[in-house]
Design a protein that fits this description.
Blueprint lengths: L2 E11 L7 E7 L4 E6 L3 E6 L4 E7 L12 E7 L4 E6 L3 E6 L5 E6 L4 E6 L5 E6 L3 E6 L4 E6 L11 H6 L14 H4 L10 H4 L3 E4 L5 E8 L4 E8 L4 E4 L12 E2 L6 E6 L4 E6 L5 E6 L5 E7 L6 E6 L10 H5 L2 E9 L2 E9 L6 E6 L6 E7 L3 E10 L13 E6 L2 E6 L12 E4 L4 E6 L6 E5 L3 E5 L6 E6 L10 E7 L7 E7 L7 E10 L4 E11 L13 E6 L6 E6 L4 E5 L10 E3 L15 E9 L2 E8 L4 E3 L2 E4 L2 E6 L3 E6 L3 E6 L6 H6 L9 H5 L16 H4 L5 E3 L5 E5 L6 E4 L5 E4 L2 H13 L3 H10 L6 H4 L2 H6 L1 H7 L3 H10 L5 H4 L29 H17 L4 H10 L5 H12 L2 E3 L5 E3 L1 H13 L2 H10 L3 H8 L6 H12 L3 H11 L3 H9 L6 H11 ...
Antiparallel strand pairs: 1-28, 2-3, 3-4, 4-5, 6-7, 7-8, 8-9, 10-11, 11-12, 12-13, 14-15, 15-16, 16-17, 18-19, 19-20, 20-21, 22-23, 23-24, 24-25, 26-27, 27-28, 29-30, 30-31, 32-33, 33-34, 34-35, 36-37, 37-38, 38-39, 40-41, 41-42, 42-43, 44-45, 45-46, 46-47, 48-49, 49-50, 50-51, 52-53, 53-54, ...
Helix pairs in contact: 8-9, 13-16, 15-16, 16-17, 16-18, 17-18, 19-20, 22-23, 23-24, 25-26, 26-27, 27-28, 28-29, 29-30, 30-31, 31-32, 32-33, 32-34, 33-34, 34-36, 34-37, 34-38, 37-38, 39-40
Amino acid sequence: MRNICRLIELCDKLPQDVGNYTLFTVDSINNIVYTITDTNVFIAYDTSLKKVNVKIELNQQDILSEGAKINAIQFIPDLESICMASDLGDILMYSTMTHQLECVGIVGSGILCMSWSPDYELLILATETQTLVQMNKDWDILGEVNIHSLLAGGKLTANIITNSTLPQSIYSQSAYAPETMAAPAGAPQANRYRETPPSISWRGDGQYFVCSSFDPAVGKVMLRTWERSLVLHAISEPLITGLESVVAWRPSGSLVACPNRLPNKHEIALFERNGLKHGEFNIRVGAEVLALEWSADSEILALHLRLTNSTAAADDKQQQQRSSVVQIWHRSNYHWFLKHELHCAENDSVVCIRFDNASQASILRVLTKLGELHEHLFAWDYNASLGDAITNPATVAMVDGQHLKMTPFRKLVIPPPMSHYQHQLDANCSAFDFSQTDYSVVTLQVNNSIAIFKGDSAGLLAKSLISTATLRLDNLRHLCWVSSSNANLYTLVAVDGLSTAKDQIVEIGFKVDLAQSSIAIQHIHRTNAPESSSSQNNNSRIIRLIKHLDHQDQVLFETNDGAVYYYHLQAGVEHSDSITPYLQEDSSGIFKFPSVCTWFAVTKIAGEEVLIGLNDRNKLYVNQTVLASDCNSFALHNKFLLYTTVSHVLRSIPLSVPLNTTTLASTPSNTTNLNNNNNQQQQQQQPNGKGHHHHHKAVTTYDDSTREVERGSRIAVVVPHDTRVVLQMPRGNLEAISPRSLTLSTIRELLNEHQYGKAFSTMRRNRIDMNFLYDHNPADFLKHIDMFVEQIPQIDYLNLFITSLRDQDTSKTLFVDLENPVAPPPKSAIKSVNETYGDTPGKVNLVCDKLREVFVKIDQNRFIQPVLTTYVKKSPPELDEALRLIQNLRGLEEVSEHGETIVNRLAEESLDYIVFLVDVNKLYDVALGTYDFDLVLMVAQKSQKDPKEYIAFLRELQSMEINYQRFTIDKHLERWPKALANLALAGDEHLQECYDLTVEKSLYHDAIKVFAKRPELKVVQELYADHLMQNNRFEEAAFLYFSAENHKKALASFKDAGKWKLALKEAKKLNYSAEDTKTLCEELAEHMRRASKFLDSAIIFSQHCGDIENALRSHCEGGLWEDAYDLAVDSNRKDLVDSIVAEQLLESYNNHMKEIEENHATYNKSYVRLGVVRTTKLNHVPLRLMPGAAGFNDETSSMMSGMSGMFSEQSMGSMNSMNSASTTSSYRSTYSSATGTFSQATKIRNKKKDQSKRKVNKVRVTGKEGSVHEEEFIVEAMKKMIPGQSQQEVVANLLRGLVLLGWSDKAEQLQNRFKQYLELIKQSLDLLSQSATAVLPENVREEQRVQELEYQRLISLQQQDDNNTNNNNNNNNQQNSNHQNSTFEKMTINKVTITMDTIKWELNIF
C-alpha cells in the first residue's frame, strides 16, 4: 500500500570539459563526492559548499600505468582515503587528510572488479586471470583462489540435487556432470569472461559475499557464494541459464538479486545463500541491467537500465533519446512493485547509482555522463483520499509501474497486490493526487503526459502530452490537486528541485475539455522557496507540501529546517506575497518544529488549528510539544488523532478536548493518560493490598483509547465517519480493525440521531455491551423507545438486548466518553468501600416495563417472546405473570384444516421459549404457587417429572379445603409467611397447628400481622415474648406481655430489663400488698446495684424502702460522694456520714493515691525506656555485607545478617529528606534470601517454606528488653495507662467528697499527684506518637520496600565502581543519587497521633 515519496531532490553540476563521468563514491560525513571520468580525472566535489575541492588528472601522474582506466572507486572511512583500481592492476589511494595520492600495489594480471567488505577490513579483487585475491586494509594478501572453483570434492550441494529435475543418476559422479557443465552447442568460443566482467557483492554483516562470473567451462554466468575466509560455500543451480554478471546482495542477508535474460522475458532472479532460486520479477524486455543497488534498510531495490531502440516506440523520439533510466522497486506481500522511474536530461545518460549506506534514510545518488549529480531522499507514504466528508470513499492508491491500483476502503478491504480496480497509464507513474471534491485522480507520467481518471471507477476523463520545453513533469514532487473556486479551472501545486539550483513551487492551472478528453494548460507560475538562515548558503529545501483542507486557496509546506509556510494560490495573477510564514501560537515568529518532520498534517484540536508532525526518530509533535516519542505512523479521523507506536499499540486521541501532552510523552506503552481526569482516577495500592483511598476499580479498569496491534503495524488509512482503521503489517498484508474509541464515537453519533438500528448492528458486530443503548442517554431512549422497537423488529435482537440489561451505568464504567470527559466522583460522595460506581437500581425493571408497553401496544402476539423475556429479566422475575400470559394464549383455540380444535401454537411456542429461559423445575414451583392446577399441568408436561407422582399429588391437593390446600402448597414450596396466612384462614381447628408453625419457623412478625384484628393476637404476642425472654431481650418481651395483658410476666420482664418504675406500676395493677411491694423494691434496688446503676439503686432504697443506710452505701459504691452527703444531711442522719460515708471515702482515697503513684512510676519507667529504644534505633547502623566482600562468603553474610537482627532492627537513619508528614520510621531485621532464614529464637537454620502454604500466625508481642517487638509492647502498655474521661470524673468526684468532709489537705495531695501524672503523660505524647508511627505495620512494610531498593542501589553502585572509569563513576553516582531521591519521594508514611482527652476535674481552691 505504500508509495515512494521523494522528499528532497538535488541536482549538482559537476565540472565540464573533463570527459564523461563514469564512477563516484561519497563521503557521507563531510558531504563530499569523489568522481572519476573516462579520461581518468579525479574530482572531489563538496555538495554543501557547491565547489570543487580537488581535481587531479591521473594520467599525468607517474603512479598510473599507461593506458589504464579506473574501473572501481571506494571511500574508506577508517582510512579516510579513497581507493581506486584500474583495469591494468593499479591500486591507488588518495588520502583526504594529507591530500596525497600514492600507488599501494599493482596486480600484474589486471583488475576487473574490486569490492570492499562492509566493515572495510577486507578487499576482494577479481583479476583477468580468473582468480579472486583477498587482501586486508594493510594490503597484505590473505588468499588467492580460482574464481571458477568447485566445492570440496567437486560435488554439488544436497539442496541443488534435491531441487533439480535431472535424474539422480547424473549426480552420482563426484564432479559436475558433463551434461550440465558443458558449454552449449554452438556457443561462441570467444573469451566472454572479459566481456562479461565479474561482479562482487557482500552481505550486510560481511560474513559472506557472492561473485558472479562467466564460466567458460559451462558457457554461462554462475553465482558462487564465498565465506569471509575465501572458502567456497555454494554454487548456483547449473540448470539456470541466462544470468547476467550484475549481482547485489540484500543487506538483510536474505536474498541475492541478479538479472536473468530469457528468450521470452527479462527478469530479476532472487537467490538464497545456498544458490537456490527463491523468486523473480519481470522487468522491461530489451533493457540491459547495468547495476543493482539495495537501500540500507533492504526495502528498495534500484535498477540501472540501459534502453535500446527496441525498447521505445518508433514514434516516441523523446523516449528513444533517453538512453538509461533508474527504476525503484519494492516488495510487499510477496509482490514486486515498480514504485518510481528516474530519468535524466535529454542527450544524457546515467552512469552510476549508489545508496547512502552510512545513513538510515533512503538516499539515492545518481551520476550522469555529463556530470549531473542527482540526490534523492525517499520516504514512504500512504496516499489516500483526504477529507472528513462522509462521502469520502477512503481510496488508497498503489503505484505499480503503469498501473495505479485503487481500493476504496469504505466499501471493502482488499490486500495488496490486489485492488478493487486499477487505472492503466500510458507510461510509468511519476506522481498523482486526489481531488478533494469528487475524489478523481490526476496522474503525472514519465513520458511527460498528464491524465485524469474518475474517482469511483477506472474510467479516463482526459489526458494530454505536455512538451518538455514547457515543463518537465517527472521533475515535480509533492503533487497537490487543490480545489479552486472556479469550477472550470483546476490547479496543481508541486515542487521542482531538479530544474533549478533552488526548490521552486510550481503552480499549474489547467482546464479539462470532457468532450475532447483533453487537458489545456492555462498558466504555470514558479515561486522560489524561502531562504533560511539556518541552512547552508541560505538554500532551503522543501521537504513536504500538503493541502489545507479548510482553505482551498492555500497549501502548507515545510522546509528542511523545520519551518512551515503558507503558499497562496496565484490563480493566474502573479504577486510577490504568495509565500507567508506560518506563525506560532503567540504570533512571535515563524513556526518551526523542534526537529524536521518527514510527515506532517494540519487539523483542529479543541477548536484551535494545530500542526501534527512526525520525524524519522519516532517523535510525534503537536505544534512544538512532544505528544509521543515512540510513534511510527499517524492518521487523522474526523474525531480522533490515531497513531501507532513501536511498542505495537494503537492510540486514539480525541480532537474535541485539549491534550495533556506532557503525560502522554512520558506514559509507558501499556497505559495512557489523555486528560487530567484519567490520572486522577488511578488507585494507589498499599503494601497490604488495600487502597489508601477508596476509589472505584470500575473507573480505571478499561481504557478505550488504546489497543494492542500486531508487531510493526502501521496505519494505512482511516475511514472518516466510520469505525474502520486499516493497518498494514511489515510483510504487506492488511488488517481492518474497529478501535473501541472510534466505535463508541460512531455509536454515540448514531444514538444522538436516533438511528437505533445501525447503532445496534454496530454494537453487535463489535461486541459492545447492549446496556450502552440505554445508558448513553436514558431519558432520550425512553422518549423514543417506540422508534427503537420499530428499527429493530427482529425478535432475536430484541431478546438479546433485554437479556443483556443490568443495573449498571456502562457510560461511567465501561465506556467513558473520551470526547466529553467527566471528572471522577468526589470522595465525599462515596459512602462505602463496597459501593460500586455506576450502579443504577431499578434500571432493568424500568426498561422491561417500558418495552412491554410498546410490545403490547403494537402487537402482543408478534412480540410474545420479548414480552416473556421482560417478565423473566425483571428483578425479582415475574414468572407467574409470564405463565398466566401463556395460559391466556392457551385459551385461544384454533381449528385445523380438518375442522378439529387444536391448542394454540403460539402458546406452545411461548411455553417452549420460557422453558428455554428458565429451569422447568423452577417454573413448576412457580406455577404451583399460583394455585392454578391447569397451569401446573401445562408446565409439568414440559418437564421430566413422572406423571404418576405429580398427578397423584395434585389430586390429593384438590381434595383439601381451599385454604388448607394453599397452605399445603406453600408448605411444599417453603413459602412460610404465605403458608401461615393461609393456615390461619383454614379454621379454628387448625389454630394449634398455626401456633406450632409460628414457633417452629419463628414467624412471629408475620403472625402478628395475620392475627392483628383477631383475639388470637394475645396468644401470638405471648409466644413471641416467651421467645424474646429466652434470648435475653427482656425489655421487648416486657412490652409484649404488657400488650397481651399478662401483667405478672410483664412485671418480671420489666424487673429483668431494669425498668423499675414500670415494674412498680405493674405491681400496683396486680394489687400487691405493702409488704410485697417493699420486698419487690428491695429486689429492684439490689438488681440495680448489681447492674452498676447506683443512683437508681439509692433512689429505690431511700424513697421506696426507707433504707437510708443502703442508699448511702449505693452512693458510696458508685463514687457519688456529693449525693451521699446530701442524702445524709437531708435525712438528718449526720451520724451516718462518719460511720459510712467517711469510712468508704477514706478507703477510696487511699486506693486512688496508691494506684496513681504506681501508675506514675510505671509510666515514667516506660517513658524513659521508650526514649532509649527510639534513640538506639535511630542511631543504629545495620550490619549488611555487600556481596563479594573480601573474607566473607554467602554463608557468612547470611549468618551475620541474621545475628544483626538479634539486637536491633534496620533503620533508615535520618528521614528528613523523606516526602512524608512523619519524621520517624520503623526498621526491620535483615535476612539473607540466598541460603535460607534464621530463627531469632533459636538461631537454628530452617528450611524455606512455600509462601502460599505458610500459616499466618499472630506475632506474640513481649516486653523483654532488646526483643524485636519491645517498642510495640511499650507503646501499647503506655496507651492503656492514659486515663480517660471516666477515670478523670472519678477523681473529680473524689476531690469534691474530700472537701465536703473536711479533708482538704488530702484533696490537695490527690489533686497534685494526679496533675503530675497527667503532665507526664502530656510530655510523653510526642515520643509516643513517633513510636506508634514507627511500629505501624503499614509503615514497617513501606520502609522494608525502600530499604530493599536502597540496598539494590548500593549493589549496583559497587558494580559500577568496579567496572567503569573514574569519569563514568561520577556520572553514575549522580544518576543513582537522583534515583535515590525519587525513591524517597515515593515513600509514604502514615502518621499516628496519640492524644489524651481532658475534662474539668480539678479544684482551684488550694
